[in-house]
Amino acid sequence: MFKLESYITPILLNYVAKYVKNFRDEDAQVSLWEGEVTFQNLDLRLEVLEEELNMPVELVSGHIHELSIQVPWTKLMSEPVKIVINTIEFVAKLPDSESKQRRASFQQEQRSKAQRTQDEAAEQQPKSSAPASSSSVVNKIINNITLQCNNIILKYVEDDIVVSMNVQCLNFTSAGEDWKPAMVDVHPVSVVMRKLLQISDLTICLDKRNTDGRIDVCQEPVLYRCSLECRVLRKYNAKTVSTSSTTRIGVLTKALDINVSSLQFPMMMRLAKMLIELKPAASEEEPANPNNQTEDTTESHAAQQEADPPGQSLLWRAWNMLPSFEAEAPPTVCDERMGHAFDIGIYAEELNFQLKNSEYFTDQSMGGIKRIRYTPILRISLGGLYYERSELKECDWTNVKAGLSSMCMEPMGAYRSEEQVDRNLVNTESFIDERSFIDKSLFDEHYMFADRMWCSYNYEDYVARNTDEYMLFRSPVLAFDIVEHRVPPKTNHTSHHPVAESQLRIQYRVLSAGITFHFSQSFAQKR
């Protein structure tokens, strides 16, 4: 007799054992059957996390204070399985040559292991006796697993720079068409998956340590209690995922308040330079062998060859453990371009940047301790920002779009003018449609994915849809786009054969309107 416990329990415990050291799943199996199991003080397998996340940095340590798995056995079709992590800490640094070599060896070992696992799964699947309906139920349960992390701490140390990041709460769930957390069904062949990642109270601190490795005085956070929402949309056909798929990622924040002092500014420039020079660890792709795989195995292996959305790789390969069954796929749309389309968009309703002068002083009233005195210099407020990048490598197509809807640059402190007319250095008119910058994005509530106008891989069609008027509608102050595409070769009218090979062409467009610059004499004299 088919029992869900016999499928769900091994999948959940195997994933815990994959990322945690010295884990004995037999000790937790009975507790999980009762509905909940809790683990304390777990050390993470850092090399596995680096491989899964393709991180450009090396993890020095990783520790979980408490992890619990909650399974509502009596309501599995209406309530998701929940994984809750309370306090997870990481320490990271730049990788050296030894760590890069170790990661390369680990990647090769993982690829070999994955190939052996797929071969074994292909041999064992015909022997499976589970009914197709049960497989569909298990797939739904696994796909709707939710993850909740409370108190995430990440520390990065580089020479005398210490970067500390803290996230109060992180939630990762499946979502419905309205992008609300929900239990959703996934078609086994024609797959449309929506994932929702919500981050609350993100705080980033940037401090400087002395020669003894200690921080004398903690400075004000660079970013304080910011909330983000990330939406991930995956669309593909299991039978053609190796040749065609669509991945869309959108990140939205309502307010981003950045405060940088004169002591932090040089450190930020050094970090920015390192980020520009730093690239994620390159992973070699292993070609799939369709003759030795079933439909579900092909789906999972091809998805691994692409850039997985955040958090999805932790549950994606669970489907390999399930039996494979045929299912009739809906008719495909003939006008879809073949290839793996990838699109990412970053949106901010408001971004405030404040620059402060800072200096150390000894506070005698507090017992002679060292403190920092801040003096505001300049405040820049930006509204309606967006950055979008889409690409289709098979067609040599890359498109970057960005825009700005409002801008205000205002002197602060001693540089601030008393006269209202001289107060702002740069100013723009307020934009009429405050939500136009998210038009046709994953955050546009009037947009449906069936409307494929969000992207075009033909330059003439792209220009016809993204006119100058439309770009200024999305961002009336500043808008630009970059299109890299392949130009068809010219043909000879007599022979009708191309006279030259097609070439890549990069075309730029910059539009701007409504910006007023004002430089007052009072600002120039206050130095």
UniProtKB/TrEMBL annotation:
The keyword Transport applies. It comes from Drosophila kikkawai (Fruit fly). The gene is Vps13B. InterPro entries: VPS13_N (IPR026854), VPS13B (IPR039782). Residues 101-133, 283-307 are annotated as: Disordered. Residues 123-133 have a biased composition (Low complexity). The lineage of its organism: Eukaryota, Metazoa, Ecdysozoa, Arthropoda, Hexapoda. Residues 110-119 have a biased composition (Basic and acidic residues). Residues 4-212 form the Chorein N-terminal domain. This is Intermembrane lipid transfer protein VPS13B isoform X3.
